[in-house]
Structures are given as C-alpha cells and as structure tokens.
Amino acid sequence: MPKAFEFLQDTYLSVMVVMVPLYIITAAFAGSEAVDTGSQNYLMYAFLQSIQFVVGIYVLLAGVRLLLGEIVPAFRGIAMKLVPDAIPALDCPSSSLTLPML
To answer: How many angstroms separate the Cα of 21 from the Cα of each of 11, 26, 80, 93?
Structure first.
C-alpha cells in the first residue's frame, strides 16, 4: 500500500472514510424533506449518524475481542487436560487480536 494510504490500515478509520461520504451523499440526494431532523441541518444529521454507525462497529468489535481474549485462555486450560496438543482456533475478528504464541 502506498505511504499516502497507510492510514486506511486502521479498520475504524477505513469504515469512517467509506460511511461518512455515503451517508452525506445519500442525504444530499434525498433532500431535507426526506428526514425530520427538527431544527438540525439534515447534512449535519447525516454526518452524526455516520459517526454513530462507526462507533457502533467499534463497540461491537471491541466486545468480540474482549470476549475472545477472556474465553481463549479458559478453553486452553481445559484443553491442556483433555487434549494436550490442541491448538485453539478463532474466527475472523480475532485476526486483529494480539494473542501470544500458545
């Protein structure tokens, strides 16, 4: 990846770079009549909703990482007694976890 685009390696920043323009462009095409935002500008409302989406993704993935970080050592302890040479297998969200070599 070129040096200019290294910032896109962060998952949440990449989601933000995609979602903010998507929300704002959609709101611009829909117009202010499409959504009742009260006294708030409809483009600002779209921006805030896109940021709220990114924060929701962050909270979801942080919870998954926390759960996996707690459950892997527990299963590893059980596996050492039942199947001594077992290797724990994790799904995709664990790819960004920093787990020590088991």
So the answer is: 16, 8, 49, 25
